[in-house]
Amino acid sequence: MSEPRDYLEITYKSINCFANDGKLDAGELGKLLAIAERDGVIDENEKRVLRAIVKRVNPSEIDADMQNKLVELSEKIAD
């Protein structure tokens, strides 16, 4: 069986999210997380990519919705 490639889709879509307005919002992060979850497992490549995406988020742009989504993501990708 071949290795899942969802992490590549997450990477590509995150580029589009940041490119449209330079920011990532809670809705966009939720869509990226949904890609990782659609097969029922968030694998190590998906976790790695999601962590890298979150590192690009400017702390001054985090609103309450984004903070909640970041907490949710953190709980799902914690090791």
Concise summary:
Helices cover 68% and strands 0% of the residues. With 79 residues, the chain is mainly alpha-helical.
Kindly list the characteristics that best describe this protein.
68% helix
Structural write-up:
This protein has 79 residues and is mainly α. The model has no long low-confidence stretch (mean pLDDT 93). Helix 1 runs antiparallel to helix 2 and helix 1 runs parallel beside helix 3. Helices cover 68% and strands 0% of the residues. The chain is globular, with a radius of gyration of 12 Å. It starts with 5 loop residues before the first helix and ends with a helix.
Q: Separation of termini?
A: 25 Å
Give the mean pLDDT. Answer: 93
Number of strands: 0
Radius of gyration: 12 Å
Computed structural class: mainly alpha
Bulk shape: globular
> What percent strand?
under 5%
Ranges where pLDDT stays below 50 over 5 or more residues in a row are: none
* Count of discrete alpha- or pi-helical segments spanning 4 or more residues: 4
**Helix-strand string:** HHHH
In helices, the fraction of residues equals 55-70%
Largest sheet: none
Helix and strand topology:
Elements lengths: L5 H16 L4 H12 L6 H12 L8 H14 L2
